[in-house]
Amino acid sequence: MRQLDLFAHVAAAFADASEDGLSTGALYDIVARSAGIDHSAATARVPIGTAKALHSPFKRAVRWHQQTLKTLGVVERVADRTGFWRLTQPVTKDLDRAADGVKLVAFSTMLGMAIWARNEDVFRGLAEPIALCVTSPPYPLRQARAYGNPTDNQYVDFICGALEPIVANLVTGGSIVLNISNDIFQHRSPARSLYMERLVLALHDRLGLALMDRIPWVNYSKPPGPTRWACVDRVHLATAYEPLLWLTNDPGRVRADNRRVLQAHTERHRRLLEAGGEQRSASYGDGAYRIRPQSFGNPTSGRLSRNVVERGHRCADTLAYRRAAATLGLPAQGAMQPTAIPDFFTRFLTEPGDLVVDPFGGTIRTGLAAERLGRRWIVTEWILQYARGAAELFRQSDGFLMHPALQWASQGR
Ligand SMILES: C[S@@+](CC[C@H](N)C(=O)[O-])C[C@H]1O[C@@H](n2cnc3c(N)ncnc32)[C@H](O)[C@@H]1O
C-alpha cells in the first residue's frame, strides 16, 4: 500500500472538508479518488496479523493517518494557504519548524523515539523517570543560526524553561550535561559574557541542581577564532574548547561510575605492570605523594578518564548524516556534535535500560549514542528537515520505523 503517498491525501481531505467534519466512510472515498486508487483496490481485504482476520490495507492506512492527525491535535487550517494544515511554521525556504502543540513521532526504534516538536510540548507531559539529559542547546549568538537562537539576556530563562520539566522527572542522582559555549562576548568588547556564571547559579537556585564539574571539550579542529579578537585585533588566544557543564539533583547519590569509562593503559604503564611496579623510592609534594618499590604493580582494568574530553569534529556519523542529507536534498544541520560526546556521558552516567533524553536534538546524536549502548531514549527536534536527515542514521536499528509525514521534509515548497 502506498503509505508514503496517503498521508498527504488524508491531511488534504480534512483540510478541504466542510466545518461539519468528515465521516470515515467519506474519507476513504475522497482519499481513494485523490490518490487514484480504484474501488476494488481500496476495498480488497487480505489476511492480516496472527489471527489472519480479513482487513483492507488501504482503509487501515487511511485510519492510521487520520488517527495521527487527531493525535497531533492540529485541526487548524492556514488562513492564506488553502488545503494546508497548520503543522509547521516555515522558518526559511527550506526549514519547517513544528507549530505549537504539534507532536509527531518522526521515527522510532525498539529503544527510543525522535519527536518532531517543541521540547516544551513533549517534556511537560512526560511522566517517565529520566536518568540523564545530554544536550547541546542553541548558543546565545548575536548572529542567529538558521534554526534560531536566544540572545545573551534571554539565555538563562530559555535554558531553565527547557530543563525544568526534565529536572522534575530526573531520578535521584540523575544528571544533566550541557554543552554550551565559552566564546560569547560582551557587545563590541573582547570581554567574555558572564552568562555561563549566571546560568550555573540559576540552575542551582531555581532548579536545585548541583554543579559536579565543568569539563572542557578540547577540540583542536575548531576554526581559528574568535575572528575579531584572535585573528584581527590579536588580543585573544585562539579558542579550542567548549565547556560541558555536568549537574545533578543529588550529588551524594549521583549515578556516576568512572569504571564505565576506563581508558586503555598506556604502553609505559603496561611495561611498569610487567616489571611488577616501581622499583624505586621517592617522595613528592612535601611527602604528600610517595612512591615505594612495587607501587602501581597491581593489575587494574584500565586508566581513570581525566575530566577533559579531547575530541575533534570528525565523526563517521556526521559524514553519514551529511551524505544522507545531500542525497535527500535536505539542508544539513550546522552545529553537530561528534557522537563520542553523548556516548561518553551516557556510559559514565547511566546503565543499560535507563532513559536518556535530549530536548535540543539536532541530528539526534544523544539518541544514537543511547541506542548503541542499550539505553532507552527520547529526543525532540523542532526542525522537520533535521529529524528527517537524522533518521537515516537509525535505519539499521532494531524496530526502526519512520513516519510517512517525514516525506514533507524533502518536498520543498
Ligand atoms: C546545537 S543544535 C543540537 C545539535 C545536536 N547536538 C547534534 O549533534 O546534531 C540545537 C538544536 O535544537 C533545536 N531546537 C531549538 N529550540 C528547540 C525547541 N524549543 N524544541 C526542539 N528543538 C529545538 C534546533 O533546531 C537545533 O537543531
From TrEMBL:
All copies of the DNA methylase N-4/N-6 domain together span 130-390
Q: Which GO BP terms apply?
A: DNA restriction-modification system; methylation
Care to name a GO molecular-function term for this sequence? DNA binding
* Domain of life assignment: Bacteria
Q: Does the keyword Nucleotidyltransferase apply?
A: no
Which reaction(s) are listed as its catalytic activity?
a 2'-deoxycytidine in DNA + S-adenosyl-L-methionine = an N(4)-methyl-2'-deoxycytidine in DNA + S-adenosyl-L-homocysteine + H(+)
Tell me which UniProt keywords the record has, alphabetically: DNA-binding, Methyltransferase, Plasmid, Restriction system, S-adenosyl-L-methionine, Transferase
The record's annotation in SUPFAM superfamilies points to:
S-adenosyl-L-methionine-dependent methyltransferases
- Asked whether the keyword Ubl conjugation is assigned, the reply is no
Query: EC number(s) in its UniProt entry?
Result: 2.1.1.-
- Which family, according to the similarity comment? Belongs to the N(4)/N(6)-methyltransferase family. N(4) subfamily.
Q: What is this protein called?
A: Methyltransferase
Q: Which organism is it from?
A: Cupriavidus necator (strain ATCC 17699 / DSM 428 / KCTC 22496 / NCIMB 10442 / H16 / Stanier 337)
Biological classification of the source: Bacteria, Pseudomonadati, Pseudomonadota, Betaproteobacteria, Burkholderiales
